[in-house]
Specification:
2 copies of one chain form a homodimer. Chain A is an alpha+beta fold. Chain A contains 5 helices and 4 strands, in the order αββαααββα. Chains A and B meet through helix 1, helix 2, helix 4 and helix 5 of A and helix 1, helix 2, helix 4 and helix 5 of B. Bound molecules: S-adenosylmethionine.
């Protein structure tokens, strides 16, 4: 008599399970100093930039602020933000998110919904926690 | 007849195998602008601060530079660096390094030798690459 057991499936971990949410975001009109303050108050390195509708239009990081310092630049978030943002979604496997970070040499991805609204942020810190013991 | 096979050991990955080396470091006497330039030129976020002997005496990150901006502060690396540095060693298992980052909410660790000289840096980006596919 043959017995069929269900195959033990390897659980696929998705972005939703490790992301930080709700996201802390900023407006493109904010000053560089305001962006710096928000990063420091929240002990984070990445700020998605959103319009009035909450749609993602850029990202500004502590590295971008260091770049502004290196260039002696003052101004608004929109002057220093990166506009072509690499993103992920809640249901994307974390292996894919990790690969995007590796390929683009970045350390976090805004998590967007189908309307391009930011619902979270996943960082290499969130991912490396999975290796901790 | 009994056959004894060696148990298949799970390979223990150590820091050495994933760290960035040689490390890019800075002197405590350097200006904040110089630190920012080195971070940008090398596309990194963390700079171990070393004395003339190459011994670790602090760490300065793009987050510290953002904090200097938030506070309107100008000055030297030694004015903004963190002096109590959490470190790792070449032979430490990456699970332990990941746990240190998680516990201290930081995203990189200088790798030091037995004489407290910096031999590399391991970041959460280096670790999260291990999850990429
Ligand atoms: C709380 S973390 C958050 C920002 C960012 N993830 C980072 O690692 O810098 C920021 C502070 O941690 C400090 N820091 C970063 N790596 C460190 C380390 N290995 N040991 C001690 N302090 C560290 C920085 O100097 C900075 O003041």
């Amino acid at each position: 008599k043959e017995v069929f057991k269900p195959m033990r499936q390897k659980e696929i971990k998705v972005v939703k399970s490790v992301m930080s949410s709700p996201p802390i975001t900023i407006s493109p009109e904010a000053s560089i100093e305001e962006a710096a303050k928000i990063l420091i108050e929240n002990e984070i390195d990445h700020l998605p930039v959103v319009n009035e509708k909450g749609e993602l239009i850029g990202i500004v990081t502590s590295w971008d602020i260091a770049r502004a310092v290196a260039r002696g630049k003052v101004g608004k978030v929109e002057d220093i933000m990166t506009r072509k943002v690499i993103t992920t979604t809640m249901e994307e496997p974390i292996e894919i998110a990790a690969r995007k970070m590796e390929q683009h040499n970045i350390s976090a991805l805004p998590v967007v919904d189908k309307d391009n609204r930011v619902v979270g942020v996943v960082s290499s810190e969130d991912l490396s926690k999975l290796l901790a013991r």
